[in-house]
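Title: Prediction job returns without error message
Component: structure pipeline
Severity: low
Priority: P3
Assignee: unassigned

Description:
Job completed but the reporter wants confirmation the result is attached to the right record. Sequence as submitted:
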Amino acid sequence: MSRIPAAVVWWALVAVAACGPPPEPYRVVLLGDSITAGIVSEPLGPSFADLLAERIPGVELVNIALSGSDSTHWAPEAKCPPGVCKRTDELLEERARPVLPADLVVVLIGSNDVSSRLTRKTSVSSYSQNLSQLSLALLKMGADHVLLVAPPPRSDSQGTSDLLLGYGRAVALVCGAVPRVECGPDLYALLDPAKDYAPREVHPNRFGHEKIAQALESSIAELRGSGSP
């Protein structure tokens, strides 16, 4: 039985050491409401979260979205909705703390803030304050960056357009004012209520989710490539 020369073994060990361990996956946390949780209206299809998980190599995707939640629920120190939290009485502590640190947290929230089921819709100023406090809390918990996404339109009711447009402006203000908080795609401008939703729906259909996935894929790729400071 022939022996492998010592020099060959030595160079092989050097090569392995130079390569080092495989790189850690880029960790992305998705935070939001039922749209992020994966609800799709007709025609049905995969959610944007599932599409992102399939399409972006080298990314670990963690989804902590809660159906029915709004920006007030996710604000720091806000009380958890009944029956949701087991460890704490705050939604952000319950869902975000255990999955951080992360390279990026994507925040898409606002569709329920304009819901008629609320006694009082969330004002633009309150929404802006909630987003700002949430972003700062996520950074403090260990998020390297936060990507704020302007909420999409709805096809289920009238009278929400001005408020949703105001939320979009609030997103732009917050991500322009807080370091390491970036502006994501404007879904209000991206999605068409007539084509990307079933009639009278708050949840985008398969075409709407496809558009969201494409837009977020580009935003995430840009952040990964730039190493945004």
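Comment from assignee: result matches the submitted record. Residues 206-226 form the longest helix (21 residues).
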